[in-house]
Every structure is written in structure tokens, then in C-alpha cells.
Amino acid sequence: MLTSFQFAQLAAAAWFGAPAVVSTTASSCQLVSGAQFISYSVFYQVGQQPGAAMYNTPGCSKASPFQAVLQAIDAAWEAHALTGRQVEQAQAVVWAAERLFAGVPTPPPAPATPVLCATCGQAPDLFGECICAYVHVPHSHYFAAA
User: pTM of the prediction?
Assistant: First the structure.
């Protein structure tokens, strides 16, 4: 589904918490019944000292790479390492990547609303300035009428 590099990049892009070491693995698991599948795991280790907080996905799960990242994010949220806003940002990154790899066309960006001048209500010119910010030549003390 994803290359190991893409999986690692997705896991790193989805982390919005404190600086962390991000480790990803994709391993082959075999059930007692003989069925085999690929298990994706994500580990976020916050801090470098021994006993640092580690948030990861459960071992040998049938989760997709996208679900594995979200499971590790949820584990960090449940341990109060991430805020609700950081979880929402991570979910948005993962969902956007999932749509991208599924081939879903991305919607065009919303048109930017023009910023209007608070003084005169006009839109800025091509230089990003409002017309009321300019000093008109006849009012300039450098202008000399002939």
C-alpha cells in the first residue's frame, strides 16, 4: 500500500505534539489459523531519557497504515500528551493522505476573500496597498506646480 518511506513520512507529518522520535514498522504476522497479513506499527517517543513516554499501536493488528497512525495518535491523546486540536490536525493530515493515495480528487482551494481597507473599504492594488495609503502628488511637498 505505502512504501516504508511514505509510511514514515505520514507518521511524522501527523505528529503535532512535543518533539518526538518517530519510528514505524511494517511486519508480517501469521495467525494460528495460518492467515498472514502485514501489520503496521507507529511509535512516538517523547523525550530522550529512559522511561520517556511512548505511544504506539497495538502489536500485530490488521490496521491499515492510516489507521495505525491514528491509533498511535489516539493513544497519545488518551495519555494527555496531545490536545484535542492537535488530534484534529493529525486526523486531517491522515485523512488527506488517505484520500490522495485512494485517488480521490482534491477539491479546489476556496477562493480567498479579498482583504478590504478599514479606512476606505477598497480592495488593495497590485502592490498590496490601498489607494488611500498613497500621498497624491499635488498634496506632496515635493511637488512643485509650474
Answer: 0.66
